[in-house]
Design goal:
The structure is a homodimer of 146-residue chains.
Chain A: H1 2-27, H2 33-42, H3 49-56, H4 60-72, E1 76-80, E2 88-92, H5 94-115, H6 120-133
Antiparallel strand pairs in A: 1-2
Helix pairs in contact in A: 1-5, 2-5, 3-4
The first copy, chain A, binds a DNA duplex (23 and 23 nucleotides) through residues 32, 34-35, 48-50, 58-66, 68-69, 84-88.
DNA sequence: TATTGTTATACTCTATAACTATA
DNA sequence: TATAGTTATAGAGTATAACAATA
């Protein structure tokens, strides 16, 4: 139980640090943490509003405002599905994708001081441990954005 | 560089999952993520407003509202410092401390399915890797809350 | 009737700017 | 004058409830 305490502690502190990094980088582009995440999700998906809400753990009404603001900035677009006319699909725009790519690079750079402190095999080990913690199969296949 | 991508990816996803867990547990007690963190910080500190703002990375004006709402719920108290009468010290109340303890236990329980998936030595290894990532000295001494 | 999404409402979180009190 | 906090203001994020359109 004692080792667990230290692990939970390290996980919580690491996560808050990560959020601080992401929040800072996002705010440099006038993006909230949620907008940042939204953009990341849309890089390889074209979900409907309800699916996005489920992904993000938010109410559908929250998504309406979130997507509306992102659309107003030209980062995403909404399109009515032809099959089911109730459904609204959300997609990232070229401008949004470009911004997302720049954000990703900034995050990698911001974390470099930490990741550089680890040897190559430790980076691999840490990745695998985190994936195991999440209950994921570490097949080495392509990883998906958050 | 490729291994770094996977590591950054794992860190980001783990952190968002952690935030989701903390957000859910907090909301079960009508606490925002920030209130949760505030309570955790005050468990072993008695800082002034400005120090708290620095810890949390927030503006002092944000702290005023945050602490005001927590105080209204009886979780923290504000007291004017006798030496410098401009300064306001913030302390957790017994009720606040009790709630913080319950939250901590809930977090440990919520993460157990993941941490149980790791062997004991892997838990130790993961803790050390995260501490190294953060640039901390893993002296084995008592850990501090976020 | 059930589902998808938006709107109205209310509250928290957040920063900026202006203010008060103390030093 | 400089520092510690608060207040006023404004905008984003969030959920609940009521609604519209479609199925």
């Amino acid at each position: 139980m004692e080792a667990d305490d230290a692990l939970v502690d390290a996980l919580v502190r690491t996560s808050f640090r990560m959020m601080a990094v992401l929040t800072r980088i996002g705010s440099e582009h006038d993006l909230s943490l949620t907008q940042l995440r939204l953009l990341g999700l849309l890089r390889d998906r074209r979900p409907r509003m309800t699916e996005l809400a489920a992904f993000l753990g938010l109410d559908k009404s929250t998504l309406s405002g979130l997507v509306e603001r992102a659309e107003r900035r030209g980062l995403v677009v909404r399109g009515k599905s032809p099959e089911d006319r109730r459904v609204v699909d959300v997609a990232i725009t070229p401008a949004g994708a470009e911004l997302a790519a720049r954000l990703e690079e900034q995050v990698r750079l911001a974390l470099a001081p930490g990741t550089d402190r680890l040897r190559a095999d430790d980076r691999v080990a840490l990745t695998r441990l985190l994936d195991t913690l999440a209950g994921e199969r570490w097949t080495g296949g392509p990883t998906n954005a958050p």
